[in-house]
Amino acid sequence: MSTYARQNIVFARGEGSWLETDAGERYLDFGSGVAVNALGHAHPRLVAALTEQAGQLWHTSNLYRVAGQEKLAGRLVEVTFADKVFFCNSGAEACEGAIKAARRYHYVAGNPERWRIITAQGAFHGRTLATLAAAGNPKYLEGFGPEAPGFDHVPFGDLEAVRQAIGPETAAVMIEPVQGEGGVHVGAADYLRGLRALCDEAGILLVFDEVQTGVGRSGKLFSYEWSGITPDIMAIAKGIGGGFPLGAVLATERAASGLTAGTHGSTFGGNPLATAVGSAVLDVVLEPGFLEGVQQKALRLRQSLARIQDQFPSLVTEVRGQGLLAGIKVNAAPPDVVAAALSEKLLVVGAGDNVVRLLPPLTVDEQEIGEGIERLSRALTHVSKSQTR
User: Fold this and answer.
1) Which pLDDT belongs to residue 385?
2) For residue 389, pLDDT beyond 90
3) CB neighbours (10 Å) of residue 110?
4) What is the CB neighbour count within 10 angstroms for residue 7?
5) Beta partners for residue 358, in sequence order
6) Whether the Cβ atoms of residue 252 and residue 219 lie closer than 8 Å to each other
């Protein structure tokens, strides 16, 4: 179906930070499949894990215990705030699961009237009907009938607005610590800590959508760690599968208490193939020094983008980001910048608020960052010249 405005290019193979066409043209990938290929393309340890598992067992369904799922869940519990994990296949499914968990928690606690969720303007939680309503973006809601009820939208970063929105029907606050699709807006640590305090005060749950920021993208395993607080429920996907479809809902024992047998499910969620790859991703990301290396590379990227802003002061008005989730706000149409970068064989990704995202693999090296910046500079030169004609 014609649901995508695709670039007219087909890739045949990939390795590390690079993609290659059948004709042998090589492209530097600073999009990572929209923050999915956390360890780049064809990472040998992911290939080995998938290949080994493929020769043993693909799918049995969740009618039975799944050894790889139990192993990965245990590892996620060990390194996060969570006590329980539900596996699914995508970020939208993870966000749907988080919404259901928050509502169901209050229902079993004897407060069925608590079902509304406060969300942030500019958010993106997925393309299902409920997650579209959670984000509230008119552009994505148009033409799909009445908006799914139960969501109250407030400005991102505005604690007082959240306080005013909390009422007797409120079940939770759900936000992205960093709004990726919305324009790389970083939630300040004081804001996130304030949300935690408001939720505790009101007896409601705090839900984080870390689909884009999770699994090392922020420079820590999860972005919430930068603020020193923990959510009650967290949705993850993208990076945890390293390119294989995998998502999960992580929750405390208390927050997960409503999701009992029969209340939620997934045919494919947490299948042996996906969880084998997910465990291999964690093997790499949790190795000593890996996340520190991401932080160092993120600093190099941020400094380089600051020089890009100095080079193009009328075109690049702001540099934003956390870890290897970076964005430049431009005085141009983001698709024009994306297209100009493509002509320089650099892949970048558009976002809201006139922002272009740079999402290199966490395994990108210093030389590749430098090469990416050079190509971005040439692309912005093209855009700048086209504006003055």
Assistant:
1) 87
2) no
3) 8
4) 11
5) 326
6) no
